[in-house]
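Run log, item B.
One chain of 83 residues. Sequence copied directly from the ordering sheet:
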Amino acid sequence: MKSIYTRETAIFCNILRRYRENAQLTQCQLAEKLHMEQPQIAKIELGQRRLDMIEAWRWAEACGMSIVELAEELERRINLRGP
């Protein structure tokens, strides 16, 4: 089984958490917007659960961002070679 604990995953999770925090949403508030439970949000932010593309799009939208902005930031940060 392939590990989900990669540098890229850590960067992605950091971006997701920052989007939530910048939107001034708690994990509980975001979970409600996404029709999820708070522990799922925590697992995603810790890199213990992956998001599919639709879930990532919904996360970005719930935080007032676009999936394009999310993808561009992910690519930029991965290319910087540092989390």
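Observations after the first pass:
- Residues 7-22 form the longest helix (16 residues).
- The two ends are 24 Å apart (CA to CA).
Flagged for discussion on Thursday.
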